[in-house]
Amino acid sequence: MSTLRTVTVLLAFAVAFVGSLEVVRRGLERLDGPDRPVGLNVAGIFLGSLEEIRTSRASRPGSVTVAFLGDSISLRTQRGADLPTALGRALAEPPGTRPVRLHSLAALGMGPFDWYFLADELAAARPDVVVVALSLQTFGEASRPMSRTRLSGWLAPARVPEALLGPMHWVGLRADDLLMNVAIVRAGYAEAWRRAIVVQTRFGVARDELAEWVAGLAGVDPRAVALPRLAYGLRRGRLPERDRYDRETQSQQFGTVLRGVEKDHPVLEVLADTLTLLRAHDVATLVYVNPINVAHMTSLGLPEGDRLARSLATIESVVVASGGVFIDLHARVPDDDAFWDAAGHMGTVDQPDALERVASSVVGPLRELVEATGQRSVRTGSR
Predict the structure, then answer these.
(1) Is residue 343 part of a domain?
(2) Which of 100, 106, 49 has the alpha carbon at shortest distance from 83?
(3) Phi-psi bin for 284: left (phi > 0), alpha (psi -120 to 50), beta?
(4) Cα 218 to Cα 4, 204, 213, 222, distances in angstroms
């Protein structure tokens, strides 16, 4: 019996060793391939857009620069359009007294914690106005793992104590990770860090491919190997598209705002800190809430009385207290047909003007901020 056990252990070790070598081989094959998308790539894209803002300000004195922060709600429609483009077009028609240039810093999955981490870089670029498209699902449990905590490396060292005392637990950012991230970026190793993460991701993909290959050799359905990863995704709120419309998933995504958001919610805390920082750098801010499909959720029996309205009022009070302008767009996009999925993406074939309705609702208050910025710069000579 002991001999059989020994042979079994040796065979298991041999299989594990060969499998590890195969993962390494496949990972090495991908080292010279194109970059895989990783969360840290957002930092490079964001910082590149900020450099465009600096260039625009230097090359076009007297113009107004507007930075747009948002997520996929602002970028994805069935028509292929995006909201920053529609808003930029609305700002240019009719032409104002000062030329306005809108720079989109929106990226898939970005939210208040990501903006908080990058707020120092944004303020240093000195846009005249920052527009924030706030998605209500960022308040829900399902969105917590989506924040890119490595972006905390771009926090200014002076703000690290504030962050350590802040609600970083909401996104699972530990104190040691935050300090290490800041140290890496400040030491000038941000790009090397990103490359290391890309390589790590490639090896992870190679491991998954190998698992499916071994399953195929063993006569096991390769899809069975993917089930643990699917379960992991379900726990993190990354549900298949077909499940996003049911009551349970909608509650997971939006239940927090449907039940009522309090002022001490972690998302509101970091949003307030970001707006306050921008105000301290003489940057005007406008926050609007991406409308959600209230009609669909009502059909599922989710909204509880006036709690959604109370949540929106709480968000407004925090934004205003932090020096920002707030807009709620639910009255402008009330139609269920305007949304092409339950996450709130708008602009369907049946309602092609949903984005234009949002843009037209935002452009008026935004123009007022632009004009106020122009009058302030004339008085102070600061811009």
Answers:
(1) yes
(2) 106
(3) beta
(4) 22, 21, 9, 10
**Any domain includes 34:** no
287 membership: H or E segment, kind and range: strand 284-289
- CB-CB contact of 118 with 153 (8 Å): no
The CATH number for 282's domain is 3.40.50.1110
Task: Give dist(CA 326, CA 268) in Å, integer.
Answer: 13
CA atoms of 377 and 383, how far apart (whole Å)? 5
CA distance 239 to 241: 6
pLDDT band at residue 177 using 50, 70 and 90 as cut-offs: very high
Phi and psi angles of residue 134, each rounded to the nearest 5 degrees, phi first: -95, 120
Number of structural domains (the chain) is: 1
User: Quick check: is 7 in a domain?
Assistant: no
Average pLDDT of the residues in 246-264: 81
Helix (H) or strand (E) holding 150, with range, is none
Instruction: Note the pTM of the prediction, 2 decimals.
Output: 0.78
Q: What token pair was written down for 44? A: 């490079």
277 occurs within a structural domain: yes
* 256 pLDDT tier (thresholds 50, 70, 90): confident
Placement of tokens 């939006």 in the chain: 254
The helix (run of H) or strand (run of E) holding residue 77 is none
Q: What is the pLDDT of residues 261-291, one digit of tens each?
A: 899 999 999 999 999 999 999 999 999 998 8
Residue 227 clears pLDDT 70, i.e. is over it:
no
- Token readout for 19 is 């499998």
Q: How many other C-beta atoms lie within 10 A of the C-beta of residue 100?
A: 20
- Read off the pLDDT of residues 8-54 as tens digits, 9 standing for 90 and up: 767 777 766 666 666 556 555 555 555 544 566 778 888 888 888 88
Question: Cβ-count burial of 143 within 10 angstroms (0-12 exposed, 13-18 middle, 19+ buried)?
Answer: buried
> Which residue range is the domain that position 313 belongs to?
41-186+242-375
